[in-house]
Specification:
Length: about 725
C-alpha cells in the first residue's frame, strides 16, 4: 500500500476488504500503482477474516491502462505479471468494480480478478494493436480463456472497445449495474462470501474454440492481412493467442512476453509510439512559455460559405461554439447551408448523430451577408476564393469591424499571409489556419505563425485545434507551408514517371503498396486536376524551366479532364467507379514523344523511391529553414493530413528507419540518371548522412540547444531584475 492504493474493511462483519486505487486523473497503472497493489494483496494474503476482496478505483474510471512512459524506461519493478499473479492467486475471491474507460492493462488486471461487476456506460478494450503492439500483461492468454478464442481474437485484432452490455454478452463481465460499481461489487462480494464461493481463476479455464484454433486463427490472419497491409503486429498477436491454446498457462505467458518485446522493438511499434509522443510535442513552441495565456473563444465568424467555409463552420458547431457564416451572396449562403444540412443528415442516416443533435448544431450556425455581424466574434476564419486582392480587401473589412483582440485567421493554401496581415492595423492578431478538405473530417490543422503573429494568438490556435478535435501543427510562412510544399516534389516525380512510361495505375499502385491511403494521381482527380495546375500557371515565373514539369496535369486541364468532377482525369469515372483510361495513357505517350522523353518502365521500387525521397529531401529543407519546428511535426502533418501510413511513422521517421545515408546516396545517384536540378541532397540531409545521424537525433540536439538558450535567458533576466 502507498498513497495511491489503500485497503479498508468496508463490510467488516461480512469480511469484505476493498482495495481502492486513487491515482488521478485516470488511474494509470503506473509503477507506483502496481507497487501499491502488490503491497495491498500481500497484506490480505492469509487473513482469515477476509472472505472476499473488491478491487475498485476512485475518480472517473477503473485502471485506464498502462503508463506510456514505461515504453522509454522499460517496465519497472514490480512488473505486471507479478502483481496480476498475486491478485489471481488470492484465496479469497476478488471482484473487480469497473467503471469508466478501461483499456489495455486495466482490462488485463480486471481479467486477472475472479469476478467482474461493471457500471453501465463502462467501456472495455484491448487497443494495443492500434499502437502496433500486443497485450503484454497476460491479455492474450487470459482473454481467450475468459470469452473464447474467436471473440478474444476479434476484440484484440480490432482494438475496438466493448460496451458494458457487449462485455456482459461476451462473458467478459458477470453483471452490469446502474449506479455505483463499487457498492454493487461489495454487494456481489458479500453474496459470494455468503454462498461460500471461492476464487474462479481465469488461467485455470479451458479455451472455448481451442479445438478449432488452427482454422479460427488462419481465417483471422487472412482477414487482417487485407485490412492491415504491410503490418506484422496482427501476425504476432495471432501467434500469442495460439500459444494460449498450445501451451500451459505459464509457458504461454512467457511466450507472450517474448512476442510482446519483439513487437515493441519492431519498426511498426516504434512508429506508432513515435506519433503518440510527437503529438504531445506539438504544443512546445519556442517563445510560448507557460505564462502565455490563450485568448477566450466563445463566438466564431467565418467568411466564405463554400467547400472549406462550410466544413469549418461544422467543426465549430460540432464543438458547441456558435458560428456566424458570412458570404457575399444570398445564393452562396443558401448553397453552403444546404450542404452543411446534407452532411449532418448523412450522419443521422448513418446513426452517428441524432436528429436532435443535427438540429442543435444547425441552430448554432447563423447566416449573414453584412460584415457588421462579425463584430462580436472572438475569431474570424476567412475561406473565400484563393485570390490575394480579394483576401486583402476582406482583411481590411475585418480590421474595420472586428472587436479589439479578435483573432483573424485565413485558410489560404498558397498566399503570403504576411502580405495579407499587412493590410490590417493588427498584424499581431493575424494567423494562418489551414484546414484540409473535407474540413469537418480531416484531422490536420496547420497553424501558420506569421512574422508578427503574437504568441498568445498561436497559443489560442493550438487550443482551438484541440477543442475542435484537430491536431494543430505550427508552421512558418512559405509557399505551401509544410504539407503542400513537400507534396510538390512528390507529385513532380509521380508526373515525371508518367511521362517516362508508367501508367497512372502503376504510379498510384506503387504508392498505395507503400501504404499511402490513396495514390497521388487519384488524389488530384478527387481535388480537381485544374487546382494545382492553375497555381502553377500563376507561379510560372518561380518554377523550373522544364517543359516536362507537371506536364500530364497541364494536358488534362487543357482538355477539360479535371478529375472526378468532370467524369475523367487521370482515370475514368463511371457510376462512382475508377477505371483506367487508355486515351489518357496515349495522350501522355504522344506528349513524351514530342518532348523527346526516352520511354522506359520505372519499377515499383523506383517510383516509390523517387516520390518518397523527393518528399523527404524537401522535408529536410524546411527543417533547415525553420518552416517546420521538428521532424516529428512533419510526421504528424503527413499522417494526419496526407494519408501517409501511421505504421511507418511519417516520412521523416521512415527516413530514419531506411537510414539517411542510404537515402542521400540514392538521391545523389538519381542526380546522375535523372534531372540533376531536382536531385541534390538537401544540405541538412547531406550533413546528417555524413555524420551517420538521424532526424530524431538532430531533433533531440535542437531541443537541448533551445532549452539551454531558454535557461540562459531566464538566468540573465533573473540577474538583471
Ligand atoms: N478546397 C480545398 O481543398 C482547400 C483546402 C485547403 C484550403 N483551401 C483554401 O480555402 C479557401 C476557400 O476554398 P474553397 O475550396 O472553399 O472555395 P469555394 O469556391 O468552395 O468557396 C469560396 C466561397 O467564398 C465566397 N466568397 C467569394 N468572395 C467573397 C466575399 N467577397 N465575401 C464573402 N464571401 C465570398 C464564395 O461565394 C464561395 O462561397 C481558399 O483560400 C483555398 O485555397 C481550399
Amino acid at each position: 500500500m502507498n498513497q495511491l492504493v489503500n485497503v479498508s474493511m468496508q463490510d467488516g462483519a461480512a469480511g469484505i476488504a476493498v482495495v481502492t486505487v486513487d491515482h488521478p486523473p485516470v488511474n494509470t497503472l503506473s509503477r507506483d500503482v502496481r507497487a501499491g497493489l502488490k503491497a495491498a494483496f500481500e497484506s490480505l494474503r492469509g487473513r482469515a477474516d477476509v472472505k472476499a476482496v473488491v478491487l475498485a478505483c476512485a475518480g472517473k474510471t477503473f485502471l485506464s491502462g498502462g503508463d506510456m512512459r514505461e515504453f522509454e524506461t522499460g517496465i519497472l519493478v514490480p512488473g505486471y505479471h507479478e502483481v496480476l499473479r498475486l491478485i489471481e492467486d488470492s484465496a479469497a475471491p476478488v471482484v473487480a468494480a469497473l467503471h469508466g474507460t478501461v483499456m489495455g492493462g486495466g482490462v488485463e488486471t480486471a481479467i486477472a480478478c475472479h469476478y467482474r461487476v461493471a457500471a453501465a456506460g463502462t467501456r472495455l478494450g484491448l487497443p494495443e494493436i492500434t499502437l502496433g503492439i500486443i497485450p503484454g500483461a497476460g491479455g492474450t492468454q487470459r482473454m481467450p480463456r475468459l470469452i473464447g478464442l474467436a471473440p478474444a481474437l476479434d476484440m484484440m485484432l480490432s482494438g475496438k472497445p466493448m460496451t458494458a452490455a457487449e462485455a456482459a454478452q461476451a462473458g467478459l463481465v458477470d453483471t452490469v449495474v446502474e449506479g455505483d460499481a463499487t457498492a454493487a461489487a461489495i454487494a456481489y462480494a458479500r453474496e459470494l462470501a455468503a454462498a461460500g464461493k471461492g476464487p474462479r481463476r481465469t488461467r485455470e479455464r479451458a479455451i472455448d474454440g481451442g479445438g478449432q484454433a488452427a482454422e479460427i486463427v488462419a481465417a483471422r490472419r487472412a482477414e487482417a492481412a487485407k485490412t492491415m497491409k504491410n503490418r506484422n503486429a496482427y501476425n504476432v498477436l495471432c501467434d500469442a493467442v495460439l500459444a494460449a491454446v498450445e501451451l500451459p498457462f505459464d509457458a504461454g505467458i512467457a511466450r507472450e512476453r517474448e512476442l510482446s518485446d519483439q513487437v515493441e522493438r519492431a519498426v511498426e511499434g516504434r512508429a506508432f509510439r513515435h506519433l503518440f509522443f510527437a503529438e504531445r510535442e506539438l504544443r512546445r513552441i519556442p517563445g510560448l512559455s507557460a505564462e502565455v495565456k490563450p485568448r477566450a473563444i466563445a463566438r466564431v465568424g467565418i467568411v466564405g460559405a463554400g467547400t472549406m467555409g462550410g466544413g469549418i463552420a461544422m467543426c465549430f458547431a460540432n464543438a458547441g461554439i456558435p458560428v456566424t457564416l458570412l458570404d457575399a451572396k444570398q445564393e452562396a449562403l443558401d448553397r453552403g447551408l444546404a450542404t452543411i444540412r446534407k452532411n449532418y443528415e448523412r450522419s443521422v442516416s448513418r446513426g452517428s448523430l441524432s436528429a436532435a443533435q443535427r438540429e442543435s448544431r444547425l441552430a448554432l450556425i447563423t447566416p449573414a451577408l453584412d460584415y457588421a455581424a462579425l463584430g462580436d466574434a472572438d475569431l474570424v476564419v476567412e475561406a473565400v476564393f484563393e485570390n490575394m486582392t480579394l483576401k486583402k480587401d476582406i482583411f481590411a473589412k475585418l480590421d474595420a469591424v472586428a472587436k479589439p483582440g479578435a483573432i483573424l485567421g485565413t485558410n489560404t493554401s498558397t498566399l503570403d499571409i504576411d502580405e495579407i496581415a499587412a493590410v490590417t492595423r493588427r498584424p499581431q492578431d493575424v494567423v494562418g489556419l489551414h484546414f484540409f478538405s473535407p474540413a469537418n473530417v480531416m484531422r490536420l490543422l496547420e497553424i501558420v505563425q506569421c512574422a508578427r503573429t503574437a504568441p498568445d494568438v498561436v497559443a489560442t490556435a493550438l487550443d482551438i485545434a484541440r477543442v475542435i478535435k484537430k491536431v494543430g501543427v505550427v508552421a512558418k510562412v512559405c509557399y505551401g507551408f509544410i504539407g503542400n510544399r513537400m507534396m510538390d516534389p512528390y507529385g513532380r516525380e509521380a508526373e515525371r514517371c508518367l511521362l517516362e512510361g508508367a501508367t497512372p495505375e502503376e504510379v498510384d499502385g506503387a504508392l498505395e503498396d507503400f501504404g499511402m491511403a490513396m495514390g497521388i494521381l487519384a488524389v488530384y482527380d478527387l481535388a480537381g486536376v485544374d487546382i494545382g495546375h492553375l497555381t502553377r500557371v500563376e507561379r510560372a515565373h518561380l518554377l523550373p524551366k522544364d517543359p516536362g514539369f507537371y506536364r500530364p496535369s497541364a494536358l488534362l486541364t487543357e482538355r477539360g479532364w479535371l478529375g472526378q468532377k468532370s467524369g475523367r482525369g487521370y482515370y475514368r469515372y463511371e457510376g462512382g467507379k475508377r477505371a483506367p483510361d487508355a486515351e489518357v495513357v496515349a495522350m501522355i505517350r504522344a506528349e513524351a514523344a514530342r518532348l523527346g522523353v526516352p520511354q522506359r518502365k520505372p519499377s515499383r521500387q523506383e517510383i516509390q523511391e523517387r516520390c518518397l525521397y523527393a518528399l523527404i529531401n524537401e522535408g529536410a529543407r524546411i527543417l533547415e529553414e525553420g518552416v517546420a519546428l521538428r521532424a516529428s511535426d512533419i510526421d504528424i502533418v503527413y499522417t494526419a493530413g496526407y494519408g501517409f501510413p501511421r505504421y511507418r511513422g511519417g516520412p521523416m521517421f521512415y527516413a530514419d528507419t531506411v537510414g539517411l545515408r542510404a537515402i542521400r546516396d540514392r538521391i545523389a545517384a538519381f542526380g546522375k540518371t535523372l534531372d540533376p536540378q531536382y536531385w541534390q541532397p538537401a544540405p541538412l540531409l547531406d550533413a546528417l548522412a555524413d555524420a551517420g545521424a538521424s532526424f530524431a537525433q538532430w531533433q533531440t540536439q535542437q531541443q537541448q540547444t533551445q532549452q539551454q538558450q531558454t535557461q540562459q535567458q531566464a538566468e540573465r533576466k533573473g540577474q538583471s531584475s
